[in-house]
Design a protein that fits this description.
Length: 330
C-alpha cells in the first residue's frame, strides 16, 4: 500500500476513535464493555416534611422511583415552613451530590441562591408545588393555584349567598402557591361578587395555634362574619378548630385549600363547605418521571411547567371515585 494511503487510513482510524469516545461521554476513557446500569438517586426536599400534602407527594415520588429503578430520598424540616429551616436540608442534599433534586421552595426569592448552588454543582433541580422567581429550574410541576383561588371564591360565595363579610388566613407572603391562591381569590371576588366585603388576609406562619387565634379575633371583631378562606392544610386546621370551639360550625362558612385527613373529616361533618384539593401524589410522580427523563438525556420537549389539576370537593362528591385521588393519604 502506498505510504500516502497508509497515512490517510491511520488518520481516519484516529478520527473514528475520537468520535466514539466523544459520543460515549465527552472524552472520558472509553470502556471496553458496557458498565452495569447506574442506579440514580433523586432527593425530594419538602416544604415541611410533616405536612399531609408533602407526605402524599412523597408516596407518588417513591412509586415513580420504584417503577424506574430510581432511589428517591425524601427530606425536609419538620420544624416549620420557612427558608431558614429548609435551606440546611437542601444543602445536605447538595452535599450528597444526587443525580437530581426536587424541591418545594418555601419562598420565591430566598431559595434562588441556594437552588443556584445546586445547579452550579451540576445537579439539575425541578421545583414541585411552589416555584422561585427566577427560571433556573429545569421545570415546575404544580397545581394551577390562581385557578384554585378563583374556585375557592366561587365556592365561598355560593355557601354564603354572595354577600357579607369574608376573611382569609394564609401562611406567609412570598410563597408562590399561597400568594397565587390569594391573588385568584381576591380577583374573583372583585370581578363577580360586588356584595361580598373582603376583609383581607391574616398570616399564620404555618402555625395552627396562630391561625386559630387569628380566626377567633376575626370572628370577635366581625360579628357578622359570613365566611373564611383558609389557604392551606395548617391554616385550615387552625380555622376549623376555632370555628368549632366557638360553636359557629355551619354558621361561619369555610372553604379551605388542600384535603388532609382532618379537613376531609370536617367536610363530612359539615364544618367545612368545600375543599380545593390538589393532587400531590401526581406532583411527586411526575416530578420524578421528568427528572429521570432529564438525567437520562431525554431533554428535548421538557416544558417549563406542568399542571397536575385540582378538584373542588364537597360533601356531595367526597365519596365519588373521581375524587378519591385528590384526598391526601399521608
Ligand atoms: O398547600 C400545600 C402546598 O401547596 C403549599 O405550598 C404549602 O402548604 C401545603 O403544603 C399544605 O399545608
Amino acid at each position: 500500500m502506498p505510504r500516502r494511503m497508509l497515512f490517510v487510513l491511520a488518520a481516519l482510524t484516529v478520527g473514528l476513535a475520537f468520535l466514539v469516545a466523544s459520543a460515549s461521554g465527552g472524552g472520558a476513557a472509553p470502556s471496553t464493555h458496557q458498565s452495569a446500569k447506574k442506579t440514580y438517586t433523586i432527593y425530594l426536599v419538602a416544604g415541611i416534611a410533616s405536612d399531609a400534602f408533602y407526605l402524599t407527594m412523597k408516596k407518588g415520588a417513591q412509586a415513580a422511583g420504584k417503577k424506574l429503578g430510581v432511589k428517591v430520598v425524601f427530606t425536609g424540616s419538620t420544624a416549620s415552613f420557612s427558608p431558614n429551616t429548609q435551606i440546611p436540608f437542601l444543602n445536605g442534599a447538595i452535599a450528597r451530590h444526587p443525580d437530581a433534586i426536587l424541591i418545594a421552595p418555601t419562598d420565591k426569592t430566598a431559595l434562588i441562591a441556594p437552588i443556584q448552588r445546586a445547579i452550579s454543582a451540576g445537579i439539575p433541580v425541578i421545583t414541585v408545588d411552589t416555584f422561585i422567581a427566577k427560571p433556573i429550574a429545569v421545570t415546575n410541576v404544580s397545581t394551577d393555584n390562581v385557578a384554585g383561588g378563583k374556585a375557592a371564591a366561587d365556592a365561598l360565595a355560593k355557601a354564603i349567598g354572595s354577600s357579607g363579610d369574608v376573611g382569609a388566613i394564609s401562611v406567609n407572603p412570598g410563597i408562590s402557591t399561597t400568594d397565587q391562591r390569594a391573588q385568584g381569590f381576591a380577583a374573583q371576588l372583585k370581578a363577580k361578587y360586588p356584595n361580598i366585603n373582603y376583609l383581607g388576609i391574616q398570616y399564620c406562619n404555618d402555625d395552627q395555634t396562630k391561625a386559630s387565634n387569628e380566626t377567633s379575633a376575626l370572628m370577635n371583631g366581625h360579628p357578622n362574619l359570613k365566611g373564611i378562606f383558609a389557604m392551606n392544610v395548617v391554616s385550615g386546621n387552625g380555622v376549623t378548630s376555632a370555628v368549632t370551639a366557638a360553636g359557629k360550625s355551619g354558621q361561619v362558612k369555610l372553604v379551605e385549600f388542600d384535603a388532609g385527613p382532618p379537613q376531609v373529616q370536617a367536610l363530612k361533618a359539615g364544618t367545612i363547605d368545600a375543599l380545593v384539593a390538589q393532587y400531590p401524589y401526581g406532583i411527586g410522580q411526575l416530578g420524578v418521571q421528568l427528572a429521570y427523563k432529564y438525567i437520562t438525556g431525554h431533554r428535548t420537549g421538557i416544558k417549563k411547567h406542568y399542571g397536575t389539576g385540582s378538584a373542588v370537593v364537597t360533601k356531595a362528591n367526597v365519596n365519588s371515585p373521581a375524587i378519591k385521588k385528590y384526598l391526601y393519604t399521608p
